[in-house]
Specification:
213 residues; extended; four-stranded antiparallel β-sheet
Length: 213
């Protein structure tokens, strides 16, 4: 198994055995239940669909009710599909997976979350522009982007130009975070560094491919 679903709790610090202070993000990961086992015969590939955080049955539409009923599990708020590399393992629908079954202290993980939404922002905050000069008759151009294109050619604004717009509220993956501590009794995972998103936001924690290097 390569990953689990969870929530971001917040940030704190712990101390290593040599006295170093390590900043960590506290994640509440799992337990997750297997809702569906995908096989090449039925779906064309091996994968597990995991459910995290139960929800009230009256909040589930009819198609999803049938999906959960077929699996024999309660309705879940979040579903996520994970490819499995070792199909020989016996995974069954309804099986519960927890952090001590998947992760180990010291290994690297990739954490995916939704970054904080900042709304519509200008180029200085969004892209780090320096702004226009404060003299020479440009008192009103302090935070403006400046020219956005030429007049004769190409006579248009090129694609991908850095301009003001929606900032944040995007799916962000932070790779290669080291697992500092695992607390299986509380389903807590402490990883070194920061994870995108606000406290209480959903995250996906996967084993990092950097472990193979």
């Amino acid at each position: 198994m390569i990953g689990l679903l969870g929530k971001k709790i917040g940030m704190t610090s712990v101390y290593a055995e040599d006295g170093r202070r390590i900043l960590v993000t506290v994640l509440s990961v799992g337990p997750c239940k297997i809702v569906q086992v995908k096989t090449p015969e039925n779906d064309g590939y091996y994968a597990l669909q995991l459910g995290y955080e139960t929800k009230k049955p009256n909040k589930v539409n009819k198609p999803m009710k049938g999906h959960f009923k077929k699996a024999g599990v309660e309705p879940f708020r979040k579903l996520k599909e994970f490819r499995i590399e070792n199909p020989d393992e016996k995974f069954k629908t309804g099986q519960t997976l927890s952090i001590d079954n998947v992760f180990q202290e010291g290994e690297l993980v990739d954490c995916t979350g939704t970054s904080k939404g900042k709304g519509f922002q200008g180029v200085m905050k969004r892209h780090g522009f320096h702004g226009g000069p404060k003299t020479h008759g440009q008192s009103d151009r302090g935070r403006a982007p400046g020219s956005i294109g030429a007049s004769s050619y190409p006579s248009r604004v090129v694609k991908g130009l850095s301009m003001g717009g929606q900032m944040g509220n995007k799916i962000v993956t932070v790779r290669g975070l080291r697992v500092v501590k695992i607390m299986p009794d509380d389903n807590l995972l402490l990883v070194k560094g920061s994870v995108a998103g606000s406290n209480g936001g959903y995250v996906v924690v996967k084993k990092s491919k950097k472990n193979l290097r």
